[in-house]
Amino acid sequence: MPDESESPGDLRTPIVAVLGHVDHGKTSLLDEIRGSAVIDGEAGAITQHIGATAVPLDVVSEVAGSLVDPTEFDLPGLLFIDTPGHHSFSTLRSRGGALADIAVLVVDVNDGFQPQTEEAIRILKDTGTPFVVAANKVDTIPGWNPTENAPIKQTYEAQTDRVRSQLDEKLYELIGELSGAGFSSDLYWRVQDFQANIGVIPVSAMTGEGVPDLLTVLMGLAQRYMKSEMEVNIDGPGAGTVLEVKDEQGFGKTLDVILYDGTVRKGDTIVVGAKNQPIVTEVRALLKPRELAEIRTEKRFEDVPEMQAAAGLKIAAPDLDDAMAGAPVRVVGDRDVATVVEEVEAELAEVAVETAEEGVVVKADTLGSLEALANAMQEAEIPVMSAEVGDIAPRDVAMATTADDDKHRTILGFNVDVLADAERKADEENVRLFDSDVIYQLVEDYETFVEEREREQQ
Ligand code: GDP
Q1: 259: nearest Cα among 275, 292, 228, 236
Q2: Record-annotated residues binding GTP (predicted)?
Q3: Binding residues for GTP
Q4: In terms of pTM, does the model score above 0.90?
Q5: Nearest ligand 1 atom, CA 84
Q6: Residues 422 and 393 sit within 8 Å (Cβ to Cβ)
Q7: How far is the centre of ligand 1, averaged over its atoms, from the C-alpha of 414 (Å)?
Q8: What are the pLDDT digits (tens) for 40-58?
Q9: 221: exposed, middle or buried (Cβ count in 10 Å: 0-12, 13-18, 19+)
Q10: 412 in Cβ contact with 382 (< 8 Å)
């Protein structure tokens, strides 16, 4: 009998988030990864999940050609989270419940580092998430000649000096101190130690150039450094994170979930992190991750009996109204419901924002972004009276009016909508609303407001 403790656990697919400034090419890059995987890989090998795309190892190695020898890897492939845009960093968390294992930071080589790029880097650093930089749109560099078909390694050196020095400078500025051991600009071939070196991979989401290299590097990073974190108990009770809470016709409120451990089945009792106490409910339906071809045909979701990690899926269940994006989802299995509720509460408490009796009100779209916003507020020494996930509603305005100090009669919203009633009420009650999709912009706007106000009062 083999010793159980020595038998290797199941390995799940590493989960990859794609981050970057708007228009730098996150969506295009994901499309290109899907596209090249479909063209080069075996038909049907790549699967479109809810909120994610799975690229199995054999497809990675087909795309990457000689760059990847599949026998070197025992991880099953890569799962790319498909929610690009500025929301994607909310899948990164500093403590328990981080969803993405690795990230790709997309930077447009012409546009360079922009506010959301810097924000993404700060959050990657705060959460300790290893990442590589995809220096995108290399096809637009004058003199860049993709038809020459020269390996990127040779042309990169000669033709991307400007880009490279900017990346070097900015990366150094933002994360130089992280490396300690000294920052290297010769990164492309030196991603072995992601603590000290950040891999910069020139790519074009348009021509597909560099995409094989990117997949290779991601696979290598996961395999070399993160494998132990991919160990899961596939047959155990499912554990995942809510990506989005959405209305689905015929199902009411549903959860888009990335399952990173275990199995979830139809009929399972689950505990879901919510605004007040965790929700205990029963899975009414698991909705099938769509095949790639179905994206265009709007085929109705198909109910499936079970799903295993790592996967993106939709869960339909009663009573999900208060569920929060970014919150944990746990299958109870043969444990006590109360134990699992406690577990979920403990995980939520880890990201709970420290609040004071006097301060501003903050709102964010997901738990992850709320945490990032709260960290930024703490750094800027702005006290927070209340911090919640969700759109700005009249009751937030009511809360803001309870502040004693006039400068705290303020709501800061990150990636959220302001409900019409709330806007009207804020006007009436003289409560200021700030919103932005860049956290540091939000903090800066508020600081500027406070400074101006102080100047006026002098
Ligand atoms: P996102 O906002 O980061 O998701 O950016 P998109 O993927 O929507 O890309 C923004 C724009 O840049 C679109 O018009 C794309 O066609 C274009 N784009 C993206 N990647 C490339 C690239 O590698 N080369 C060129 N020339 N254009 C690109």
Answers
A1: 236
A2: 20-27, 82-86, 136-139
A3: 20-27, 82-86, 136-139
A4: no
A5: 4
A6: yes
A7: 24
A8: 444 446 777 888 888 888 8
A9: buried
A10: no
